[in-house]
Design brief:
Number of domains: 1
CATH topology: Maf protein
Helix content: 25-40%
Shape: elongated
Order of helices and strands: EEHEHEEHEEHEHHEH
CATH architecture: Alpha-Beta Complex
CATH class: Alpha Beta
Radius of gyration: 18 Å
Number of strands: 9
Largest sheet: 7 strands, mixed
Strand content: 25-35%
Structural class: alpha+beta
Length: 209
């Protein structure tokens, strides 16, 4: 089982997202949660991939300043369709507009992430993109989904891992990226940097019982 502790530096998730927390736990990681305090509304708009990566870096750096010995992971996710970025809807009307825009189309989900450690001046950042095709939605389906309350804290007004799974016709790319964190890419960096170890029983020990 993967675990932390190779270089005795702990890992901090600079996000209060329950979905990112769940994904890291599923990957076998031990970490603390310290949400960043940056004001996302003040970030200048830029192309989606650049936008989420700049936010992820800002979140990670904000928490790293108070925890210089720890590795800090920041992330941000946004949905883009027809050249328009969709964040989290603030009302049922906004959610309806977003879901109507996504209906019958293929959109892109961008997650930017940053892993940094201030003490060693180490910072690694990247953006992962996934294509998601949504089925053609009826007004009845949209209104029912909004009535569940699920769209309101989700980029693009849907959760692929929740009730919103019925909206998705197909995806091309990382599933966990759509949930909120590209786990494969994040874990690859954590292993390479020595933040995450792969020690455990050998295959022969496992076969022997």
């Amino acid at each position: 089982m993967p675990h932390n502790g190779v270089d005795n530096a702990d890992l901090i998730l600079a996000s209060q997202s329950p979905r990112r927390k769940y994904l890291l736990e599923q990957a076998g990681l031990t970490f603390r949660v310290i949400p960043s305090r940056i004001d996302e509304s003040k970030r200048p708009l830029s192309p989606p991939g650049d936008y989420v990566q700049s936010l992820a870096i800002a979140k990670a750096e904000d928490v790293a300043r108070s925890n210089p010995d720890s590795w800090v992971l920041g992330a941000d996710t946004i949905v883009a369709v027809d050249g328009r970025m969709l964040g989290k809807p603030k009302s049922a009307q906004e959610a309806h507009i977003m879901l109507r825009r996504l209906s019958g189309k293929t959109h892109q989900v961008f997650t930017g992430f940053c892993i940094c450690r201030q003490r060693t001046a180490r910072q690694l950042a990247d953006t992962v993109r996934t294509e998601v095709t949504v089925k053609t939605l009826t007004d009845q389906e949209i209104n029912w989904y909004i009535s569940t309350g699920e769209p309101f804290d989700k980029a693009g007004a849907y959760a692929i891992q929740g009730l919103g799974t019925f909206l998705v016709r197909r995806i091309n790319g990382s599933y966990t990226n759509v949930v909120g964190l590209p786990v494969c890419e994040v874990v690859e960096i954590l292993i390479r940097e020595g933040v995450m170890g792969l020690e455990g029983r050998s295959i022969d020990q496992h076969i022997a019982g």
